[in-house]
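Lab notebook, page 48
Experiment: co-folding of the full assembly
Goal: obtain a model of how the components sit together before planning crosslinking
Operator: M.T.
Materials (sequences as entered):
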Amino acid sequence: MEDDQFLEHVMDLVRDHLGGNEPNGDYIEPSSLSKISDLGLPLEGRGLESLIIDIEHFLRYSVRTDSPGFMNPLWGGFNVAAFSGEVIATLVNNSMYTYELSPYATLVEQALIRRMCEIVGFSEGNGTLTTGGSNGNMIGMMCARYRIDPLGQQRGYDVKNLVCFVSEESHYSVLMAANVLGIGFDNVIKVACDDDGRMRCDKLIEEIERCKKNNQIPFCVVATAATTVRGAFDPIKEISRLCEENEIWLHVDAAWGGSCLFSTKYRGLMDGIELADSVCWDAHKMMGVPLVCSAFLIKNPEILRKICAHGDSAHYLFHQDAENIDLGRISLQCGRRNDALKLFLSWRDKGDAGWARLVESYMGLADYLEDMIKKESSLEMMSSRDWTNVCLRFTSEGIDHNDVNKQIRDRIIKSGNYMISQSNIGDNVILRPVIANPAINIKHLNGLVEEIVRTGHDVIRGIPPNH
Ligand SMILES: Cc1ncc(COP(=O)(O)O)c(C=O)c1O
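Observation: model returned without errors.
Model output:
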């Protein structure tokens, strides 16, 4: 088969795949899937034609994240502008380290970073696209560590006494970063949250003072805007005041909530963001750009340049004449894919106003879902709501709530119509649909509520699943 013909086939498969109604229509247990799959790598190549069957099989058993029933993680949907950006970026296969190798892509990425810095309020800021919010959180902590001990980069860090503070509902990536940076899990202090899942500033100051008394050095607070389970926004303005008074770096993990900044209605959720030292913001979450697309933004760009410095050891890549334009000097990666084009094309397609409408429509749908839950006697909200995370459970007198809700979620996932996540708030198992998918409308939310209620009643009556 010729390349052209093959590509046409692939595009037909792409078109057929789009618009699937069930996110998990062909749910299959892992052991059965491996039995019916041909995963052998041949000694002699089979040619392009055989790949069509491989691709069909792959698509058949992939979750349809573009389906309106997909409400599980913090992203979803199909974005045609971004899809074309992804394909074109792969076509040209640039690497982002030097201007020489990625001239236009370098300008595109810097245009995005400049705009995101403006939106955050870092007028002199800079940044880089990274492999995700987890990586952005780690870079923020690296910058914080550098500020407290710039010579450590050369000498090696003695980090035994460094402590970092996060809310008890923060994302696990902060622990991962502490591991990578040698800070240690014990030195990530989990600050208590209020009833709505936001970091308590009175507890933060207590923890800072306790650490200082123990001769530990508070070097970083990671505030979360919005948390993974409840979508709670930590009070950035108050936290920044404590950070300033105690000379602590403030990094804001806005991987999930950063998009509120587009909306005049919801921007207040991140009031004070311009007071932070660094921020991460995932365009691959609410903005619906395909994974991965995530920005790390910093108020003082010199610190980012310093932590990414590698002297003149990469003389085969970097030359002084391009020192200020080569993005490899402000990134931890060497070879780096172009994640910028897909975000750039989506932004050109939608504009700031389009992003604001997207955020506001998602919030409208989440409000609608919350109202329905409050009206339905066999459902209850399990948390207040700031963002589009809707935390609920099925309820009935005398049941083991955790067990019943786990069974409900298991049946729903296997029935294929909806994918929602199961999490814990305190000791309670909760169901957590999230609105971050442009395919969702009111009809799908009605269907979801109906399916949870019906499944809950089936579980408590002992009626077996019908799949
Ligand atoms: C609050 C928060 N921060 C960070 C992350 C990690 O982001 P990523 O998956 O892009 O590494 C997540 C992921 O869900 C998150 O919810």
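Interpretation: The longest helix spans residues 340-375.
Next step: discuss with group before ordering constructs.
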